[in-house]
């Protein structure tokens, strides 16, 4: 259902894109591997709360959202945090949990995109399911999504990841 909505939006706006089916994958890095795309091209959408309102933060699969930088990009907002699923489960109709596409415009939310993604010719992102992605030029994505570009990503904290795995 979400994939259909996104495709209708893209088709209606004359965007060029490729829909790619893949085996089920649940993290952005797994999806990138499944579709044979370098992680830097895989746009990971993270649902956040900025000053009490839901928003989308989009970074490369190889990065994490830096909430401090996101707050600065939103106008020095001190109240920025990751959203809890119960806060948005009904907002992204048709999307499976963890597969929200980076089009806040379709869901009534702001979209913040890391500048590193804007430097790429093309991006790949979840199409609302754990088995489909869309690939399109960043120029077309930007034209349609109207994201706010900002430096909002950081390298993952490897020490935290290692302590969790142990």
If helices are DSSP runs of H or I spanning 4 or more residues, what is the number of helices? Answer: 7
Mean pLDDT: 93
- Strand fraction band? 25-35%
Looking at the structure, what is the overall shape?
globular
For this entry, what is the oligomeric state of its chains? single chain
**What kind of sheet is the major sheet?**
8 strands, mixed
Which secondary-structure class do the elements indicate? alpha/beta
Radius of gyration: 15 Å
Q: Could you name the CATH class?
A: Alpha Beta
What does this structure look like?
The protein has 166 residues and is of the alpha/beta class. The protein has helices spanning 2-12, 28-34, 67-73, 85-88, 115-118, 138-145, 158-165, and strands spanning 17-21, 42-50, 53-60, 64-65, 80-82, 110-114, 122-126, 132-137, 148-150, 153-154. The protein has one domain: Alpha-Beta Complex (YbaK protein). The chain has seven helices and ten strands. Strands 1, 2, 3, 5, 6, 7, 8 and 9 form an eight-stranded mixed sheet that branches. It has a two-stranded antiparallel ribbon with strand order 4-10. Strand 2 and strand 3 (53-60) form a beta hairpin. Mean pLDDT is 93; it is low at 162-166.
């Amino acid at each position: 259902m979400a994939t259909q909505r996104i495709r209708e939006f893209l088709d209606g706006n004359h965007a060029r894109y490729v829909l790619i089916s893949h085996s089920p994958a649940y993290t952005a890095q797994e999806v990138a591997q499944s579709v044979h795309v370098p992680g830097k091209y895989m746009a990971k959408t993270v649902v956040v709360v900025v000053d009490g309102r839901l928003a989308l933060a989009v970074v490369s699969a190889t990065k994490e959202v830096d909430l401090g930088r996101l707050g600065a990009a939103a106008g020095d907002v001190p109240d920025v945090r990751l959203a809890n699923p119960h806060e948005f489960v009904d907002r992204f109709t048709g999307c499976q949990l963890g597969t929200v596409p980076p089009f806040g415009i379709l869901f009534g939310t702001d979209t913040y995109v890391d500048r590193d993604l804007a430097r790429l010719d093309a991006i790949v992102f979840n199409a609302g399911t754990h088995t489909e992605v869309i690939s399109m030029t960043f120029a077309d994505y930007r034209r349609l999504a109207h994201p706010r570009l900002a430096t909002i990503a950081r390298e993952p904290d490897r020490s935290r990841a290692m302590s969790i795995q142990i």
